[in-house]
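Q: Give me the 3D complex with zinc ion.
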Amino acid sequence: MPLNRLTENVYELRPQRLGACRVYVVIDGGRWLLIDAGNHRRTPAQVAALRRELGLGPPEVLLITHWHPDHLGGSADLRRAWGVPVALHAADHDCAAGRVRPSLSSIGWAEHHFADNHPRYFEPDLAPADGDEFRVGSLSVRAVHSPGHSPGHTAYYLAERGVLFIGDALGGKGGTILGDPRLFSSAPAASLASLKRLSGLDFAWLAAGHQLHHSPELPALLRRWTARWR
Ligand SMILES: [Zn+2]
Ligand SMILES: [Zn+2]
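A: Here is the predicted complex, encoded as structure tokens.
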């Protein structure tokens, strides 16, 4: 099966192409959703294989943490193939639709040009606001607006399983959990405020866009670390 299991109901699609983000899957009672879309050449084929093997219908929704092409990559194709609605915070819609192009110095530009992440621009279907809930079977995934890395950056929180899908709100060099927020953000002060807020949640899994960590100590670690930055 093209899935790695994190914990009950929560999986990751097998590793993506170099430079594409991790794609997470929440499944309950035959219903499922995806968090981020990975590479447009890879994810739609993986989703098709998964549907065949598990006998699943299309995902309920595709929750995108932010517009950067390594996360948005497969969205347009999944949407076209199966009508999967794509949810992205309204502040990132202009970039997703190609109405605004990233500046040459921005993080978004860097992720655009790294590896093979060129997106197909499209208009997202849903604009989740902070606190919005997405049901999947008996579970509920909550949107937590966490601007900084991009204006619309949104983490998704599955409280019932202690999993925080944190996107690129957190980025350390070389696979470390914690890096200087100024290196991975277009708005460092906003990033730091977002991380402080996220560190108040209770989670044991930090399912990030490019990393995966498991420890009950993670919220405390994040709180100690954010306290060091002014
Ligand atoms: Zn990003
Ligand atoms: Zn990324």
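A quick observation: Residues 66, 68, 107, 111, 149, 168 surround zinc ion (ligand 1) (CB under 6 Å).
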